[in-house]
Amino acid sequence: MAFDLSQIARYPAPARILIFILALAVLWVPVAVPVNFLMGLFTISPEQHQNTATILTLPILYAEFILLVKLWGRRVYRQPKLLWRYGLDFSRQSGKDLLLGLAIGVTSLFVLFIAEGTLGWLEWFPSPHLLRAALEGLLVALGIGFAEELLFRGWLLDELQRDYSSQITLWVSAIVFASVHGFRAQFPALVLLGATLVFAKRSRSTPVREGNISWDSDKWKSLQGKHARERLALPIGLHAGLVWGYYIINVGQVVKYTGRIADWVTGVDQNPLAGLMGFLFLSILALGMWWSSQKRQAE
Fold first, then answer.
1. 20-39 pLDDT, tens digit each
2. Alpha-carbon distance 15 to 150, whole Å?
3. How far is CA 33 from the centre of its chain?
4. Residue 135, Cβ neighbours under 10 Å: how many?
5. Which of 98, 147, 175, 268 could form a disulfide with 274 if both were Cys (CB 3.0 to 4.6 A apart)?
6. What pLDDT shows up at residue 254?
């Protein structure tokens, strides 16, 4: 007798998340293992091996993730438009949100570096690589922003919100986001960034009223009403904007630290998220997104 996958919807969130990850691993391992083996035969250094294998396997992994999400929606939740529920769409408003997020993210990062330059903590230099870094960085940033936001503020947040309160889902998702990126000096800032991106998503909530969607799901019906769905474009743009700004500065080699103040202020290993100034500027951004989300919820 075939197992009814819709029974998984009744499992607690940690179990559902684990099952999804295991299912994704089953899809990915048959691709990742032979690619890594072949790269080991044709590449010279371990670094080249790792970089080439990552470039080849990550797009496949993410394609499998999206396909699994669609299957998960149809078979587990009986919700064929699960990506839409996550907040992913290609409307004009989402395009505006994406551009707004990009502008806020890259501007915020440059304001941080300009402030540090004004204080004499770093110096600016012209770079022949600036245009190339800007163009490459934009593509890289959009890819990272889309992939990580769909994963963390899309799939993971949705799974948590089915079982827990908004505050619990906020901080659990933020801690998981930071943990995946490693327990290093920037961990507190990454937790704050994860929360900021949740606030950004919640600031773009839209009403989903009964009759809009005819999905057969008690849990979905419980979410119907005012501000039931939150668009994903703003956090994608915000995330991408921060990555883009850092890529321009780092790869473009346009700044050099003077060493007049300790690294823990400007950022350990020249990573602004691993310093006090970066945390303070990120706190301001978090407050702005929190205020915007509170304003939307009060409407």
1. 999 999 998 888 777 777 76
2. 20
3. 26
4. 11
5. 268
6. 92
User: From CA 209, how far away is CA 78, in angstroms rounded?
Assistant: 18
The pTM of this model reads 0.89
- 80: Cβ contacts below 8 Å, ≥ 6 apart: 70, 73, 74, 215
Q: Tell me the β-bridge partners of 255.
A: 124
Radius of gyration of the chain (CA): 21
Amino acid at 116: E
Beta-bridge partners for 256:
123
Residue 124 identity: W
Beta strand 122-124 pairing with 225-230: unpaired
Element (DSSP H or E) covering residue 122: strand 122-124
Cα gap 243→116, rounded to integer Å? 19
Phi, psi of 260 (to 5 degrees): -80, -15
Q: Report d(CA 143, CA 50) in Å as an integer.
A: 19
Please identify which residue in the block is written with the tokens 């080699």.
Answer: 253
